[in-house]
Amino acid sequence: MSSQRLATELLQHIVEKLGEDNETKEGLQALVACSTTNSALLDVSQKHIFRSVTLYDQVPELPRPTPLDSDACYERTQLLLRTFQENPRFVPLAQSLSYYFSPGFSGRPGALLDSIRQFANVETLLVGFYASPINRGVVASTFDEETLSAVFDIMKRPRFRKLVVDSVLSFQMEMIRGAPGMQELILRNSASNWGASTITLPPLNAPWSSSLKKLCVSPWLASGASMISLDIFASLERLEISLLTQDLLMDFYVPLLEQTKGLRELDLTARIPVDA
Predict the structure, then answer these.
(1) Which of 140, 185, 186, 266 has fewest C-beta within 10 Å?
(2) pTM given for the model
(3) Do the beta carbons of residue 5 and residue 31 sit within 8 Å?
(4) pLDDT (tens digit per residue) in 226-247
């Protein structure tokens, strides 16, 4: 092996290690620097640069000045989407996608949601609410049907493995029936909704096998549980539930615990409400 080849492989290994920190500003800057320094490092650097993608929906039109963080988030989103549009070869590199929505503006996120659907190799999806200037003080929101449909389209793909739902009050647990490859679900400050929806779910009597192995719910909100859908949790191996102290007197989580026949690990914690 020539010394030049050895040096190149060593540099590529260093870039791979830098890629483990690609979600921090410093890590991303280091990867960008590597991609522009040596042509031999271009491909391996780009693989990590575009592995994780974070997108924000449209910032509401408000009188200037608007907070810099909101403007910056939206501008970064537009830059990313333009980069993917001009360089389609980057699209398959995205494996982790974070989408933050902020309801309350006049526009529709349809174009952005269509862009999200193009990421065919996504294995991890985080979808969550963020407070824009128009809804400061709001801590959670509901999905509209358009967003719900886009999330479900990603969940159905064979490569999909993990969903994180952050500060959403209308996530439908039954959607898991349409995600045969999903292994982990994390609900942060979110509540499940067992109501009807326009999305097309597999028939309740259709045979299916859940791959869900891990469920984390913090806190567990007493929104009710569909007995029909409790078979979703039959394959769980690890369950983490965070309760408020007053929830300890309730029994709404008991059916879930009874359904987890193969459970190996249970982490049950309680906390005192902030305003208590």
Answers:
(1) 266
(2) 0.82
(3) no
(4) 544 667 777 889 988 887 776 6
